[in-house]
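Section 5: illustrative case.
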């Protein structure tokens, strides 16, 4: 299956992606409305968020350049010290920009 990369084709792809995103998000909420949230299920949901974050970060740490590694290190250290996500993200961005500019 191929979709033309004309303006109409690109808008169609965007519409399809938006529809799939909405269906998965609303579908998950709909399905979870039938599940009783026990402590075990709540623990699973909380752990799932961490595992998704790790799945995003690990490939960047393994295959990333020096800027990515500096950002990961700076963000991790700042988060451990300050415990504020916005500050940690900001420090990570500055670290990546600095290493990529000067390296």
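Designed sequence:
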């Amino acid at each position: 299956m191929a979709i033309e990369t004309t303006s109409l084709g690109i808008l169609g792809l965007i519409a399809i992606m938006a529809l799939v995103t909405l269906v998965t998000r609303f579908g998950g909420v709909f399905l979870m409305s039938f599940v009783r949230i026990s402590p075990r299920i709540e623990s699973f949901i909380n752990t799932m968020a961490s595992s998704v974050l790790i799945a995003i970060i690990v490939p960047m740490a393994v295959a990333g350049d020096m800027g990515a590694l500096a950002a990961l290190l700076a963000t991790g250290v700042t988060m451990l010290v300050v415990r504020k996500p916005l500050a940690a993200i900001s420090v990570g961005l500055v670290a990546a920009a600095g290493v990529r500019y000067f390296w």
